[in-house]
Design a protein that fits this description.
Elements: H1 3-27, H2 43-63, H3 69-72, H4 75-100, H5 109-140, E1 145-150, H6 154-165, E2 171-177, H7 199-206, E3 210-214, H8 220-234, E4 236-240, H9 245-249, E5 254-256, E6 259-265, H10 271-306, E7 312-318, E8 324-330, H11 341-352, H12 371-378, H13 386-392, E9 396-398, H14 405-410, E10 424-426, H15 428-433, H16 440-453, H17 456-471
Parallel strand pairs: 1-2, 1-3, 3-4, 9-10
Antiparallel strand pairs: 4-6, 5-6, 7-8
Length: 479
């Protein structure tokens, strides 16, 4: 079973199980004798609400790694994460009920307990038993992907050997390629197919369906060039390299036989995904503006009273395909702070020194930050006007980090791949920069990874993570 199809299959079946088990639990709720279906009119909004709530839960499941190969093939870890996901699903539902007190939430503890039990049971049976059975059926039907392993290292040989030992892993290695001039040693009778430049002619000869880059020593530019070539030919590529190690250590990583990999796809042209993302962004941004309008107005007044100058900071930023757009923020610094040559020099140094491998820090001259600005930066209130950018379509809620033109001009060619989609108010870059700090190259890698793997579950996971970051008062660390 191919991985991309497995993800779509799991997203749909998990959503269906969430909704289906809720309906079953609702059906067995104790009703007063004599109550007919007409008297149960409130059941409809309860079910409709769970239709939408279950989409959010997919983001929770994604946070627990329930769509990662390394989880799917570890029964105990898989079950433990299913258990955590089921418990969080019920607790979050109960919390939302307490917060909103709306009639479309079910208050019956009996229904929630039944839902939790049914959810855990059905998810466990489906994911741990039925899914593994489907993998075996597809493997025995010779539906594993036929791939070439690109690499001439001990790790690539280990990978080939493990694939041979585990025929149900979904990967069938039919050849190896060398990146350097040295011909790799033949492993388990797997033929040598030359170098990556010969891929187009080898695809029809060996019926190749994908590639696995397994070479720790590639430079960022060479790695991204090779990955892009494979993606153009196959639509996807798996990568293990020292220069993708930040992603391999992160929650976004996958694994074959304890070897961490990241998977990259082409930029999605799926109309359904595009429509969902744009529709979700527009509705969420509009609701955010309406619900937060008192805070927006109060912030604007506070800024105006605190220091002279405009309420908003409006500057050009690089958007999709390098196109410039007006980027909105609440002004948190004194007028003219963006002309600080010391700050601009530090930004240039971060990008150029050590090929972007120095740890990034927040480049801010605190002498320019106003008293109101310090507060709104800590709680990410200064970022809220970006919701208007989302309404206009210049930005998405989740996407690459938007950058000014002078920073974009200093970047290498591979850095700019991330701007093939609209920039976002938040993204993987924000979540991981808030931890131990990241290099400029790592920030670009997070953005590129997101652009090549974005899906509804990942968006929801990132949004939840960002909200948690803001509530901890750490939003300004990663902006």
């Amino acid at each position: 079973m191919k991985r991309s199809r497995t993800i779509l299959y799991l997203l749909f079946t998990d959503w269906a199980i969430l909704v289906g088990t809720f309906i079953v639990a609702l059906h067995f709720r104790p009703y007063d004798k004599g109550m007919n279906l007409i008297s149960r009119h409130h059941v409809v909004p309860e079910i409709v609400q769970v239709f939408l709530y279950s989409i959010l839960v997919l983001g929770v499941f994604s946070m627990f790694g329930l769509y990662k190969r390394k989880i799917l093939f570890l029964p105990f870890t898989h079950f433990f994460n299913i258990l955590r996901g089921s418990i969080i699903t019920i607790l979050l539902y109960a919390l939302l009920n307490v917060l909103f007190k709306a009639n479309y939430f079910v208050e019956s503890r009996w229904v929630l307990l039944q839902w939790g039990f049914l959810l855990l049971t059905v998810l466990t049976i489906h994911r741990i038993y039925i899914l593994r059975l489907l993998y075996k059926i597809f493997s025995s039907a010779n539906m594993s992907r036929r791939v070439v392993v690109i690499g001439d290292t001990e790790l690539s040989k280990q990978f080939v050997e493990e694939c041979k030992k585990n025929p149900d892993c979904g990967i069938q290695v039919v050849g190896m390629m060398a990146i350097g001039i040295t011909k790799p040693q033949v492993v388990d009778n797997v033929p040598f197919l030359g170098v990556p430049s010969t891929l187009p002619e080898n695809i029809p000869l060996y019926n190749l369906e994908g590639a696995v880059i397994c070479n720790p020593n590639l430079s960022h530019q060479r790695l991204m060039d090779l990955a892009e070539k494979c993606i153009q030919l196959f639509g996807w590529v798996d990568i293990h390299s020292d220069n993708s190690s930040a992603l391999q250590k992160a929650d976004t990583a996958d694994a074959f036989f304890d070897i961490p990999f990241i998977r990259m796809h082409g930029i999605s042209d799926n109309l359904f995904l595009k429509a969902w993302k744009r529709g979700f962004d527009f509705v969420a941004a509009l609701l955010g503006i309406l619900l937060l309008s008192p805070l927006l107005i109060a912030t604007a007044i506070a800024i105006k009273l605190n220091s002279p100058g405009s309420v908003f900071y409006v500057k050009k930023r690089v958007g999709k395909n390098g196109k410039l757009f007006d980027f909105y923020k609440f002004r948190s610094m004194a007028v003219g702070a963006d002309q600080d040559e010391t700050r601009n020099g530090q930004i240039k140094e971060f990008i150029q020194n050590g090929n972007g491998d120095t740890k990034m820090q927040k480049v801010v001259n605190t002498a320019y930050v106003t008293s109101v600005g310090k507060f709104i930066r800590k709680w990410a209130i200064d970022e809220l006007p970006q919701l208007f950018n989302v309404l206009k379509g210049d930005m998405a809620l989740v996407g690459p980090r938007p950058v000014p033109q002078n920073e974009y001009d200093l970047e290498d060619e591979w850095h700019r791949q991330r701007f093939r989609i609209p920039p976002g108010c938040t993204g993987l870059w924000k979540l991981y920069a808030s931890k131990e700090g990241v290099t400029f190259n790592e920030t670009a890698l997070y953005d590129i990874y997101y652009s090549r793997n974005m899906n509804p579950a990942m968006d929801i996971m990132i949004i939840f993570g960002t909200v948690f970051l803001i509530l901890r008062g750490r939003a300004d660390v990663s902006s």
